[in-house]
Amino acid sequence: MITHVQTYDKNSLEKKGFLNRVINFIGTDNLTLFLAWIVLVFLISVVSTWFGLSGGSKFFTWQNLMNSLAQAVVIVGLLAVGETVVIVAGGLDISVGSVASCGSVVAASVLVGIGTVGSLHIFPTGNTLVAILAGMLAGMIAGLLNGLVVTKLHVNATIATLGALAAFAGIAFLLAPDGKPIGVVTQPGFTWLAQGRLLQNMSIPALNGSKWTGIPVLTVILVFVTIIMHIVMRYTDFGRAIYAIGGNATAARLAGINVSRVKIGMFMISGSIAGLAGVLLAARTTSGNPINGQNLELQAITAVYLGGASTSGGKGTIFGTFLAVIMVGTLNNGMNLLGFNTFAQKVALGLLLIAAVAISQFRQSQAEKARK
């Protein structure tokens, strides 16, 4: 005799199905990272309130959020997006900061029509679009060289790009006249890239009277590049080849993938995006400075591993990196508003990198145990 019949509410099932689809789309790791970011924001708020720190009251303002995204996140975010492609394939590009410096100097040189190597005048005067393309081209060439060294000379990617880090830093100084910054402050079209805002004259009731300052052009550029690279990595043959190579390069080669060509391509993508980051650095600082991209590679690499990439390759997403970049930017911004100096921020960043790699290694070991 049946005493109980299990019944299901159709609306409840539909809600659960929708929730599962959302979680599957975002990814469990990314959802965890997002929740960790929420906790970080909450902790910064609590600490600022508990100790009565004046900077904490500015943390949740719309203006600070937009400034944080534009100033503290965009450049590192672009570098990290390009770095993700390399790390997913099982490589590492340590040279992205120096490549950004080269892109910065080249863009500024093209824009204002200066730039010499000895007595040779190598850069013609160009407009803003030409300057942007020149900076990205410089980065792409740097990436091509990295790719050739790794694939044709069979040098380990970490060692090859470590050498490139020093080499491209030197090239940036050689391209700048006497190694000095090249000012572009008189080029309004160029500096608009960093200082311009979109949709400024809008009334937003949800802000409850807070001033709407618009969306920085820098933020729009980062979101656009992130979406494009997400599509490339998730929906194209090239993206699938990147994951295959990172998972097992030998198996990928046996499956018919031209591993060398894909690796060269991934370094060129990383380099061109780093070149774009350098262009935006020149626009933001109003100068093409040979040290513009110095030390940015550490933040970019930290964001990639924090975003769920594996140290052995084959795992990681552009969206995960994007969330991690926001988290790193929030940490830096929060520490700055709470009065921590630069040295304390570097300590926090270093510890975060170690933690991110440790978590990646732990996940990898757990996955290997599960397969056995």
UniProtKB/TrEMBL annotation:
GO terms for cellular component: plasma membrane. It is found in: Cell membrane. The chain crosses the membrane at residues 31-52, 72-92, 99-123, 129-150, 157-176, 212-233, 264-283, 304-331, 343-362. It comes from Flexilinea flocculi. Keywords: Cell membrane, Membrane, Transmembrane, Transmembrane helix. It is a multi-pass membrane protein. GO terms for molecular function: transmembrane transporter activity. This is Ribose/xylose/arabinose/galactoside ABC-type transport system, permease component. It holds the Pfam family BPD_transp_2. InterPro entries: ABC_transp_permease (IPR001851).
